[in-house]
Amino acid sequence: MEFWTNQGLFLRQLLVGIALLLAACHSPIRRTPDQSAWQRFEFTQPQMGLPFRLVFYAPDGDAAASAARDAFQRVSEMNQILSDYETDSELNLLARTSGQNLDVKVSPELWKVLVMAQRRSQESDGAFDVSVGPLITLWRKARREHQLPHPDRIQAAMARVGYGNIVLNPKARSVRLLLPNMHLDLGGIAKGFALDEALRVLQQHGFNRALVTGGGDMALGEAPPGKSGWKIEVPPLDSQTNEPSQFVHLRNCGFATSGDAVQKLEMNGVRYSHIVNPKTGLGLTDHSLVYVIAPDSITADSYSTTLSVLGPSRSRILLARIGAPVSARILRKEGSNIEVVQIGEFPILRDD
After folding, report:
1. Same domain, 345 and 259
2. Is 16 a domain residue?
3. pLDDT in tens, 73-113
4. Range of the domain at 157
5. Three-state SS letters, the chain
6. Residue 18 lies in a domain
7. What is the CATH number of the domain that holds 135?
8. Could you read off the pLDDT of 201-254 as tens digits, one per residue?
């Protein structure tokens, strides 16, 4: 009797297996979408104090609009976490705990940005330092009022600066700010992270042929149809020159620009950049422009600021020492001469 019971069970299992196999054979086969007929869409929205632009290929307008809405929403979320302008951003809430001997658990997003920021600070010996907020505040005011900060105020601000006073606890994913009245400024790294996040949202929607820009920084996905990469202009140091346009063709990487073309203060014949050297407390005074290509936008963004502070010679030494997968093009003007330094593969093309 037991033999027949087991045999019946076997037959039932066999029939079920055959039925599942037949069903699978008649199920529609999933194919990779044919993207050859996809259209190019472009959306722009003010985010993080500047225009964010999405350019990508999608099958129709409804799908594109939905993806763009989600991407912009993600950037808005990053702003509420990483901004030093928003009063109740997570970054500013953290800063209010400075000097209180508190370990503050932070979001995964803020943690990732702070970890990379500290790594960049350590490898550059403080040329990159997100604790530079008190100095940034002084120089913002200086540009508005067209007046240099008083040396005493610079020294007082520098007493609250130093990346060594940011203590990260990986096990708890917590942060302790050691000095009272610290002010973190993520202006040299947060935008790059937000661009990466926006690109990731578009890719989650299935739109890999995408470009996201914010100011001079970009996150790039797959190239447009039939192209080897996205055609990105690399302007000269001074836009009023008659130099021919130059370009790079990029895909699946980050691209960033740092310079004093827009945000600057000119006093007594000296040009002070919005980029502040944490070691001196002063805005950079060499007229320069730095382009960086890196695996992602957060890396490119943070290195463009770092290399701006270090200058060409020390930038070359740094990138060679750490072996970073980063290429850079640094233009610096001294007197009437423009120095051009290229580090790594940076394939400049003339206009075609």
Report:
1. yes
2. no
3. 999 999 999 999 999 999 999 999 999 999 999 999 999 99
4. 100-184
5. CHHHHHHHHHHHHHHHHHHHHHHHHHCCCCCCCCCCCCEEEEEEEEECCEEEEEEEEECCHHHHHHHHHHHHHHHHHHHHHHCCCCCCCHHHHHHCCCCCCCCEECCHHHHHHHHHHHHHHHHCCCCCCHHHHHHHHHHHHHHHHCCCCCHHHHHHHHCCCCHHHEEEECCCCEEEECCCCCCCCCCCCHHHHHHHHHHHHHHHCCCCCEEEEECCEEEECCCCCCCCCEEEECCCCCCCCCCCCEEEEECCEEEEEEECCCCEEEECCEEEECCECCCCCCECCCEEEEEEEECCHHHHHHHHHHHHHHHHHHHHHHHHHHCCCCEEEEEEEECCEEEEEEECCCCCEECC
6. no
7. 1.10.3980.10
8. 999 999 999 999 998 899 999 999 999 999 999 888 876 666 667 899 999 999
